[in-house]
Structures are given as C-alpha cells and as structure tokens.
Design a protein that fits this description.
Helices cover 24% and strands 23% of the residues. By secondary structure, the protein is an alpha/beta fold. Helix 3 crosses helix 4 and helix 6 runs parallel beside helix 7.
C-alpha cells in the first residue's frame, strides 16, 4: 500500500480531559513497529465503557486519550514479524488480548490474559511509546485499541482476523458489547436449558445476555430496568418478563424471589452499580444460584456484602469479555453471525457519521440508544 511505512494523517476523537466532550481532530498515526498492526477502522460502536472513560471513572486511563474499543476494520500495514495477518485482511481489534503465552492464556478454563489492561497499564503500546500525536502532543492509547481513530496501531496479539464476508458496520459489536453479554450467559454462567434467569440492565450488553440466555434454552428470562422503553426490545430478543423496580415498594430481589419461588437460577448485573450488584446476588437462589458480574464499577468503588448470602452455596463471579478466548473465539462468533445463529444487528438503533460522535454519546446518556455505530 502507498501509505505503508509512512505517518498517516487522519481524523480521531480525542478526549483532552475528563468531563469534556470529545474533540474531532486531525492526528498523526505512526507506522506499526515490530509485532504491531496498523488498522483502518471502518466502523465502531459506542459502549458505556467509553462513557466511563470520558467521565474519568475508568481505571488507569491517562489523558489526552483516543477512546473507543468496539471496532472493526481492515489491515493497512503490518510491522516486522507479523505473520497471522496481512494488508487487506478484515479484523476486529481486541480490548482483551490473547498473547497465547501467559499462564492464563495457556489454561483452557481461562480467557483472561496477563497482558490485559487490568494487569498492566495500556495507555501506551507495549514498548511504552504512543503511535498518536495531535497538535504536537503525544496522545495516549485506550486498551491498545482506540477505535475512535480512522487509523489505529495495535499489537498483533490484540487483533482477530475475521471472515472477509463479514459486514464491518455490524460485526464491530462483537469486539465488546455483544460478545460480552452473550458469552456471560453461555460461558461464565453456563445457563442450563429450562432454567430461570434475571438480567439487571438492558443496554447493549444486558440485551446480549438476554440473547445468550435464550440461546442456552432458559425457560424464563426476567429483564429488569428502570427505563420501560427498553422492554419491547428485550421481549423481541427473548425476555419472558420485564419488570421495573420503581413499580414496587419492596426491594427488587424480594420481587424476583416471589416471582420464582426460591430466586432465579442465574442472575446478571450489566449496569455497574454496587447496589444492583448486591440485588442481583440476592435474587439468585441461595444454594445453587449463580450471579455473574458483567457491569464495570467506577474505579475505586467498593461493595460491602452480607457473607451469609454466599455461605449457603451461591456463586458470585466476574466475566471479562464473556469468557471468550478472544483471538480463538471472536472469528468463530463472526462465522456464527454470518450463519445467522444470532442476530446482533437488532442491538443497533442508530448509525451515525463519525463527526457526530458526541451526538452518539448524548443518545446513550438519554437512554435513547441501545448501540450507536459510527461510520468513518
């Protein structure tokens, strides 16, 4: 390609400081170094985690930064030693890498990688330098992916090569939201056929949990949200009941326990609030109930929990990107999408040109969108 080995000037949405709107700027993107891939991003979803970044509530983020982590694109060029992909390949950059070498990557029961954001800060690429500059200033990367840039540079082990037939404006959701929720039900909870489930929070991730519970054969799927406008979509995707905690005088965990007898078999928290995490834990049955934490709490948050909730046998667990080993599994999920095994397109409520990125965040804050996809 004519751009290979050269600095590329392109548009990106830069967060200069916490609490400020994104600013669409011209940035310079350096060529990939050894072991890196430069990707032309075609489409990117707006995920609530990006909103955490803008508010300054996401752990270990440094400003100025280019956020975005739910994207899909085409390889523009590769650095020395990169063998798993070539220019022209369609790819999804991965906010949870799979280095293939750490103790967790080598464990078949784990999908966590020690090179992940929570283990080592990823505000710069592995060699501790950035590939982004703007107005003479160095700009930080976000979780190595920074999909709110027309071009981004990512380590090879944080990129999944996908089927060339995949529509990038649709499968970008598999980079985070859909895969996270769908996998939480199938991989982390291992929902059994005929079981009962409750999902707290009906954003893009929560609705993907609903789809996962339905795919697993759950007989009752109770969707919980204070925004009743999301109930029609939840029912379309497989929810059997939709309840609004504001309609009841008693705590929602008591409502769920009464609806189901002993509580649900599986509960999922897909919001990121301490109080809903406790409610989700208390709403699954006290013996074999499994509660999966999917939402991201603001950094520095703490939860105090009555230990008797766990003493009787409940399981409380976390989920990182739905339990998928990302480089192995995201390409397979894309193939399943192409085979129409699920319809993640139903989560996309708005498609906007990239210049309207701040409008996309306004829709998210107002609860009017499930997923907005930005197109470059």
């Amino acid at each position: 390609m004519a751009t290979s080995g050269k600095v590329i000037r392109c548009r990106a949405a830069v967060a200069w400081a916490a609490g400020k709107p994104l600013s669409v700027e011209e940035v310079e993107v350096a060529p990939p170094k050894a072991g890196e891939v430069r990707i032309k991003i075609v489409a990117t979803g707006i995920c609530h985690t990006d909103e955490h970044v803008l508010k300054g509530c996401f752990p270990n983020v440094e400003f100025p930064v280019i956020p975005g982590h739910e994207g899909a694109g085409i390889v523009e060029s590769v650095g020395e030693g990169v063998t798993s992909m070539k220019p022209g390949d369609k790819v999804i950059p991965l906010c949870l890498p799979q280095c293939g070498e750490c103790s967790f990557c080598l464990n078949p029961e784990s999908n966590y990688c020690l090179k992940c954001h929570f283990s080592e800060h990823q505000n710069l690429l592995p060699d501790k330098t950035t590939r982004f500059t703007c107005k003479g200033k160095q700009i930080h990367h976000f979780m190595w992916v920074s999909t709110f840039a027309e071009y981004t540079v990512v380590p090879e082990y944080a990129v999944a090569k996908i089927d060339p037939a995949a529509p990038l404006d649709k499968v970008c959701l598999l980079g985070c939201g859909f895969s996270t929720g769908y996998g939480a039900a199938l991989n982390n909870a291992k929902v059994k056929p005929g079981s009962t489930c409750a999902i707290f929070g009906l954003g893009g991730v929560g609705l993907s949990v609903v789809m996962g519970c339905k795919a697993a054969g759950a007989s009752r799927i109770i969707a919980v949200d204070i925004n009743k406008d999301k109930f029609a979509k939840a029912k379309e995707l497989g929810a059997t009941d939709c309840i609004n905690p504001r309609d009841y005088k008693k705590p929602i965990q008591e409502v769920l326990t009464e609806m189901t007898g002993q509580g649900v078999d599986y509960s999922f928290e897909a919001i990121g609030y301490a109080e809903t995490m406790i409610a989700a834990l208390a709403s699954c049955n006290m013996s074999t109930g499994v509660c999966v934490m999917v939402g991201v709490l603001d950094s520095g948050s703490e939860i105090s929990v009555d230990p008797t909730l766990l003493l009787t046998g409940r399981t409380w667990k976390g989920s990182a990107l739905g339990g998928w080993k990302t480089r192995d599994c995201i390409p397979k999920l894309v193939s399943s999408y192409l085979e129409k095994k699920f319809n993640s397109d139903l989560l996309i409520t708005h498609t906007l040109p990239f210049a309207k990125v701040n409008e996309g965040f306004e829709l998210l804050r107002a609860g009017k969108s499930i997923r907005s996809v930005l197109l470059f």
